[in-house]
Every structure is written in structure tokens, then in C-alpha cells.
């Protein structure tokens, strides 16, 4: 049901449901994304405090971690919102 990592496909391949109509606006996603950004930043600081990794290791680790966390969270929120709107 996803065409891009965190964007719905235009239609459900199974039942033809118009998924694009249920794509939440960015405003609906801020309450999820903003706390995650704070948590990830705090996590990065603690990781640095605990292990003092070299800068290149930060550069290697954080982009994929941030991407995976964000994509996972956005998918979860979008599916949750979709389910609530389909089955009230
Ligand atoms: Zn479907």
C-alpha cells in the first residue's frame, strides 16, 4: 500500500481503495515527527557521551537510523489514521 517509503500508493492493490484520499497532511504528522526528532537528538548525545565515537562514525550511523525511525513512524501513523477513518 506504499508507493514511496512513507507515502501511500494511489490505490490499494488488493481492493482498489483510493488511498491518496487518505494521505494525511504534514500538519497531522508534526506531533509524531517532532518528539521523535528530540528523542533522536537526545539519543545521539547520550551515545556520544557513553562511547565517544569518532565523528565519521556518527556520520555513518545516524542518517540510516534517522531514516528508518522516521519512515517506520510515519508508516505506522498513516496506517493508524487510515484504519480509523475507514472503520469508525
Ligand atoms: Zn485494500
Write the layout of secondary structure elements.
Elements: E1 2-4, E2 7-8, H1 26-51, H2 55-86
Antiparallel strand pairs: 1-2
Helix pairs in contact: 1-2
Q: What number of structural domains do the residues give?
A: 1
Biggest sheet statistics: 2 strands, antiparallel
Helix residue percentage: 55-70%
The rounded distance between the terminal residues' Cα atoms is 20 Å
- Low-pLDDT ranges: none
Tally of individual helices: 2
Q: Tell how many strands the DSSP assignment holds.
A: 2
Q: What is the strand content?
A: 5-15%
Strand order of the largest sheet: 1-2
Give the H and E element order.
Answer: EEHH
Decide which structural class fits the backbone: mainly alpha
Please state the overall shape, judged from the principal axes of the Cα atoms: elongated
